[in-house]
């Protein structure tokens, strides 16, 4: 019996050490564990869970009660820009949220299957347009499965439609536009981070949607996925690890930062990490990213 108690105490201690402390993050409510998400879903009456995956993936298994939403729902319409990937207007977002039965006080939980970078894009759009209560589920659908929590197949029942009204004015402090980036590459006081993959950064590949290969002239390259663990459910790294990753390249709390990728999705993930997890104040996501920059043939591009 004594040996059994010692073993159980050891297991409990090991679990305690391994258990993740979400209070370490600048905004502890912005990122929740799967277990905490389950509690919120069960207790909060005004809640919605968005699954940001393609419908076919969603139907094969999702968090019970979650509704599917995809990039096209939160992106600009085809006739708004001469290129793709841009954010939807505030009016479109209001209509989308209202159609899902969301009001300004709804707690929105978001997850995906790609270490939360699609989820982070939705967070960024909603945060910019003024929604208050938004949380990402750490590890996404893989984290939920690893925690042994149940899944549901098919479609979840959607709530009755509402008229959504933003509870505050849009905050564009986390948005960078083309002119901002043009000025930034000429300034010693702004860090422009490429959050894409190696081959995109080096200009050896051109992803669909872009008009040419290369990168915006800048020396800082920190792929978005370095902010999550390499193995398992791809959960976010600790504050200590994140500060070390970004600090080694001079991306510190006092820096002015613009992040970009192909279309502002992966860079939204980096924006989430720097602002919500680390508390950096001067961070903007370049919405147009490489698609918009590459569209303008007169703008410079580096390779290699």
Account of the 3D structure:
With 304 residues, the protein is an alpha/beta fold. It contains 11 helices and 10 strands. Strands 1-5-4-2-3 form a 5-stranded parallel β-sheet. Strands 6-10-9-7-8 form a 5-stranded parallel β-sheet. Strand 4, helix 5 (117-128) and strand 5 (134-137) form a beta-alpha-beta unit. The longest helix has 17 residues, at 2-18. It starts with a helix and ends in a 9-residue tail after the last helix.
Structural class: alpha/beta
Which outline best applies? globular
Total DSSP E strands: 10
List segments where confidence is low: pLDDT < 50 over at least 5 consecutive residues.
Answer: 1-17
End-to-end Cα distance, whole Å, is 64 Å
SSE order, as H and E? Answer: HEHEHEHEHEHEHEHEHEHEH
Mean pLDDT: 93
Rg, rounded, reads: 20 Å
Strand order of the largest sheet: 1-5-4-2-3
Major sheet attributes: 5 strands, parallel
Number of helices: 11
**Overall helicity:** 25-40%
Strand content: 5-15%
Topology:
Elements: H1 2-18, E1 31-32, H2 34-43, E2 47-51, H3 55-60, E3 67-68, H4 90-99, E4 107-111, H5 117-128, E5 134-137, H6 140-146, E6 175-176, H7 178-184, E7 190-194, H8 198-202, E8 220-221, H9 239-247, E9 256-260, H10 266-277, E10 283-286, H11 289-295
Parallel strand pairs: 1-5, 2-3, 2-4, 4-5, 6-10, 7-8, 7-9, 9-10
Helix pairs in contact: 5-10
